[in-house]
Description:
Largest sheet: 6 strands, antiparallel
Mean pLDDT: 84
Strand content: 25-35%
Shape: globular
Helix content: 25-40%
Strand order of the largest sheet: 6-5-18-15-8-9
Order of helices and strands: EHEHEHEHHEEEHHHEEEEEEHHEEEEE
Amino acid sequence: MFDDTRPAPCSAARLAPPRRVLVLVNPGARRGSEGVEPALERLGGAGIGMVVETFSGPDEIGTDILRRAGEVDAIVVCGGDGTLMRAAPAMVKCGLPLGILPMGTANDLARTLHIPDDVAAAAEVIAHGRLRAVDLGSVNDHLFFNVASIGLSVDLTRELTPALKRRWGRLGYALAGMRVLARARRFSAWIHEGDSRFRTRTLQIAVGNGRHYGGGAVVEETAEIDDGHLDLYSLAMRNVWKLALGVRTFRSGAHGAWTDVQTARGVEFDIETRRPMPVNADGEIVTSTPAHFRVHPRAIRVFAPEPPAMVDRASVARPPR
């Protein structure tokens, strides 16, 4: 469970490289076979001491972080979004900053934070020492960075097998997506936000904490990972193939302008369905409905470059359409 008694980290940028880091390598990551040596050389060249460990399973990473946290002043995780999600609870508990070497399939958190895809260049970001305090989302107390969703994305998670990701990389998302759309059906859900409650017949409900998900799609066109809000959308269209035709709008986050897409922005949501439905968070099924979603502002500090100027966001939550 997320500990709200822990002080929120400072949001100001800091330019000071870590002195000693724990580097956790996921050999099962899609790009794990490429090796982390270029990144380690870059960190070592910056005078950063390192403890390097590999972990064999996703549940092992949190144990490794807490076991070695007292020996270092930062944690560097080599892997994809699922690995980073698994690391989040231990990162919150230890309070150390997080460095990311993107070695997964989609690397959506790295994309949101403008961290380079090249691991040596990503190591340079860590060596530069700039920290950005980012939000976390939670669904039934399971933490996530990017997005949690119900419906199509769960089917996509099941369809997007490790073998498909290894063979096709990001193209695997499109191949799996076409299969999922071919058998998609709408479901009923009730969404609560504050005193507001509305019903939807939908193909998918997504609740985003970050900006990117699903290999580069955008949750909402002005969403950022440090804005203190969650962005929700519900795909209420009857024609599932409209999604395929409108793929460009999902890449820009402009799908909220469609009349059959319901949107809302808030800090907490509750979603109920007629029967329990699985919930996918950052590419892994973690819980089921009824689901309580919540944002945890500035929960983790991450080494990240200066973000480009973004469009100013509205200061008030928008009601559902």
